[in-house]
Amino acid sequence: MSTQVETAEFQAEAQKLLQLMVHAIYSNKDTFLRELISNASDAIDKLRLASYQDKDLQVDTDDLHILIEPDQEQRTLTIRDNGIGMSKDEVRDLIGTIAKSGTAELLQELKDTSDGAAAQELIGQFGLGFYSSFMVADKVTLLTRKAGEDTATRWESSGEGTYTIETVDEAPQGTAVTLHLKAEDQEDRLLDYADTRTLTQIVKKHSDFIAWPIRMEVDKPGEDGESTRELDTINSMKALWARPKGEVEQSEYNEFYKHVAHDWNDPLETIHLRAEGTFEYQALLFIPATAPFDLFSRDQKRGAQLYVKRVFIMDDCEELMPEYLRFVKGVVDAQDLSLNVSREILQQDRRIQMVRRRLVKKILTTVQELQSGDAERYKTFWENFGQAVKEGIVGDPDNSELILDISSFESTRDESEKTTLRQYIERMPEDQDAIYYITGNSRSKIENSPHIEAFRDKGLEVLLLSDPIDEMWVESVPEFEGKKFQSITKGEVDLDEDSEQDAQQKEDFAGVLTWMSTALSDDVKEVRLSSRLSSSPACIVGDNHDMTPTLEKMYRAMGQQVPRVKRILEINPTHPLVSGLRSSFDENGEGEDLTETAQLVYGMALLAEGGELRDPAQFTSLLANRLAKTL
Fold this sequence. Notes:
single chain, Rossmann fold, nine-stranded mixed beta sheet, ATP binding, unfolded protein binding, ATP-binding
């Protein structure tokens, strides 16, 4: 039986990505074989797991393996496995489209860069898997039959934007990917991938650790000098996590990471540990060198691969890794769990919870060691993953102190270098008892905020917190190393050393402050003098426990209704506009023109902090009228 052949187009973004692959953006074309072998290994893992979970599944698991079949005459290379296989719908979903978020961003960045190394790094962030076949092949044919199904699916494409798909009757269980190879081209680093010696070298380099036998017919010398073709296993099949650290080369770790993470770059850091005692397990974890494009996607999967006594149990075991460490990849092999363990059971398993706590602590202390011993690699880590890690300050109270310790923040001290909290505290004047900070949407906006003026004039360092998560954690963490966190946009800040002058100004401005508080009562709860301003006429601040405008917007964006918070208008008594306002009030009392001026002062203060006017049209009308009177 064979159904009608259907022709379909790739998803638009997948088509563009294919064109980039075909035109050889990635120079190390050998890695296509690692990607296909990794896919085959995953398929065998899934079949073995399915056979444990479904005793009625009629499958043969006695000789699970991967077979490499080069054909010099036909110029083809087939990678075959007897794993789980795919249904027709799965082929459409997994091969015909790219379902990962971030594809458009990847394509735009690839388009914008002319640097080959930068392009490789971008591709590595995305992980292309099956699509890498088109770097070395003019046409790719896939034949697959899912375990338990009677019919198979054939998929074929030349990478030009379309593919064909059909149902066929005869096919063994599993998947076979046949590459119709391009001609050898040494200048383009395109090797002869139908040559068994070349293939053996690539497998030894990139896939030696694969747990299943990788077989291929190779030439074996005979006693009479004649060579014969024999089927041979060309990988060692040694589980890296089960070997002592001293026996594993970093290059082996790197290749294993690329297998489990589907990344084309080397990892930034490797964590290899073994726990013995009441509950034994081994773990091999990796911190990537670059953030994946879906790091902040709701659909982004997290967690290590879970094995039990070297038997694959599940991908992306979320119970092993908190969400803020979702970028960590690797393997955990437990010795005392059931092979039939489910996600529901894992959620309640105290041993898994204990493993999770230990893994989290080990990852965070590893970052701490990078911070103190390798500044450049730590900087790379924090630039890629700092925003995600800071989520743990709120979500993981047991480790919030440690997370704060390994965190870095922008500050007014240096535009190019971030600071840790310990470094900030070491630089604090002896009489400073708080860690000053300001939150906002971007550094450029908040470092020019009026709130910072007096702090900058007096040489006081302020942390500039511009990540969305910063709005959350500063509300939940009271202090660090005995120093409280103090927002410079909340409460009263006393930076004025002249108390007599301060008392005199309060007396001089008492009348105009009372009047302005009444005139602006629809928008503010109070008008008072400020000691945090030096050059701006006014700023808006909140009480110590008020919700910030940014946090208020975040809650509203999430559909949560929060009451509108009235804030405080602080005015600068030394600014000509404010002193003129006071003089006019003292001489003439309140009037329409003076009320309009007060409204304009409030509106300017709101705009200066990046806020939104309640009635922009009224503000611009008032401004235009006041300007007209000056002409």
